[in-house]
Amino acid sequence: MKKTIIIASVILAGLALFCGCQTVPKEIPEDLDARQLIQRGQDNYDEHRYKAAEKYFNTVLERFGDDPKHYLEAKYELGHLYLKKKKYSAAYDTFMEIEEIYKNVPVGLPGAYKILCGIELAKIPADKVKEFEERKKAPVQEPLPAQEAAPAAETPAQQAAVEQTPAEQAPAAEEAAAPNEQDVAEKKEPSSEESANE
Prior knowledge:
By secondary structure, the chain is mainly α.
């Protein structure tokens, strides 16, 4: 009997945790201010409802992103969440964005998030940080422009010309344009000496 109660309790706790992790609010009330949204995000984070927490923090960015204090706090909370979920790339990018903000706007911002970002960045595995830094240094490759499709060839000769590269097409075009010597000789009118001999 005691064993059955323990097993049932474990199963119920597991179900509660599983169901709790899946609860994401469909709509977030418009009347909540930034502080309330962040608090709800933190509460959901503490209860391991990470998707719901992420939604609340992103809502702060959408609604109150113009205010640097709210923006930094919500961004930090997102970075902390990504780090907890071992989404190291997203966490790194988030914390680096916050550090960049502090470099560009050194006064008037709450100093706590700059310090906290340094602490959180130190928690990302060193090999991952190295990989992310190399990614940032790598040159950005522009996509090649799309090439136009060659027009469909109607005859085998046109098909062969379409398949040739431009370098191969140039001599062929010159040959077609320049008459060959035999054609010139045949078309040449006989000179007065040749006419006299006939």
